[in-house]
Design a protein that fits this description.
Blueprint lengths: L1 H4 L2 H17 L1 H4 L5 H10 L1 H4 L5 H17 L5 H20 L3 E2 L5 H11 L6 E5 L9 E5 L12 E6 L9 H9 L8 E6 L4 E6 L4 H7 L2 E2 L2 E2 L1 E5 L23 H9 L3 H9 L3 E3 L2 E2 L12 E4 L3 E4 L9
Helix pairs in contact: 2-4, 2-6, 6-7, 7-8
Length: about 325
């Protein structure tokens, strides 16, 4: 039963027992009951839990009842749904002592998932995208004793052709790749290489398929070859810091100043679906920003709100 006590599910059972302990001793604990405190109770209750003959079934049930606690703070509904799926994957991987992998995740799902998984003592998570600045990554999850190194779950391809007279955009490469029939979740970042073409990150099982089926990007004939990840040719992002004084924290005000476009033009971009906050499309120009938010506009780059200060005349 020692293995059961250290499993992902048992941790949840212990947390539930810790909560019951905290309630019964509320006259002592009052408002000081926090996650870290509950974890301390879990360590003291370990010997009790290991004696339960039906520990596995009980801990699985406990996990299902506690998932919502971990998902608190994940705002976007679609992101919450994906993070919940990854939590369930982590539970299975830990209980069965196996390593499981996600598809390529969008930045919001990746960020929220890693933050949630870091709270679980019985689960180790590794994110890989091929290079340090990769936006889309795959997560591998498993018990810490099983997941001891980075799994080989991503591959790179070089797409070459003569793009001197017909430059192709990120969207052109993406459209041609998806046109072969693969889904977006199997494809990571696309690194543009100017006149030479592009480099892409994919799941290993699609390398041979793309090498044989991707023969053209827009009107340019191309060839695909597999390359080692160390050969990826990427540039660190170029950044520029600035300060601005605005009357409000609305996205149309701050993004207009950051991207140096008129507010009326920015409103048009929002209407066209070209503006995103934390990779989620903006639906209204009145959306307010906060510290840490990232605003991106198709073809213009990104703006990060580093800090906000207020002053009164």
């Amino acid at each position: 039963m020692a293995a059961t006590a250290s499993s992902f599910g048992t941790t949840w059972c212990l947390r539930r027992a810790a909560q019951a302990f905290a309630i019964s001793h509320s006259h002592i604990l009052r408002n000081n009951v926090k996650l870290s405190l509950q974890r301390n109770f879990c360590s003291h209750l370990l010997s009790v839990s290991t004696s339960l003959a039906s520990g596995v079934s009980q801990t699985v049930q406990a996990l299902k009842g506690e998932v919502d606690l971990l998902l608190k703070g994940v705002g976007e509904r679609s992101v919450t749904k994906e993070v919940k799926h990854i939590l369930e994957m982590a539970r299975r991987a830990s209980l069965k002592r196996e390593i499981l992998h996600t598809d390529f995740l969008t930045p919001p799902v990746l960020k929220e998932s890693m933050q949630v998984l870091e709270k679980l003592a019985d689960v180790k998570a590794i994110a890989q995208g091929g290079y340090p600045q990769a936006e889309r990554c795959r997560i591998s999850v498993g018990h810490p004793e099983e997941l001891t190194s980075d799994p080989d779950i991503i591959s790179a391809l070089s797409i070459t052709g003569n793009f001197q007279f017909e430059p192709c955009s990120h969207g052109d490469f993406l459209g041609s790749i998806l046109g072969t029939g693969i889904v977006r979740e199997k494809l990571g970042d696309i690194i543009l290489q100017g006149e030479q073409g592009a480099q892409i990150i994919v799941v290993p099982e699609l390398v041979e398929f793309l090498m044989s089926t991707l023969v053209k990007v827009r009107n340019v004939p191309v060839s695909c070859t597999k390359i080692p990840l160390i050969s990826l040719d990427y540039e660190p992002p170029r950044t520029k810091s600035f300060k601005t004084i605005e009357a409000s924290l609305r996205v149309d005000a701050l993004a207009s100043a950051g991207f140096k476009v008129s507010r009326s033009k920015l409103v048009d971009m929002i209407s066209n679906g070209d503006v995103r906050i934390n990779w989620i499309p903006v639906t209204t120009k009145g959306t307010t920003l906060k510290s840490g938010d990232i605003v991106s506009i198709s073809g213009k780059g990104r703006l990060k709100v580093c800090f906000i200060s207020f002053w009164i005349r």
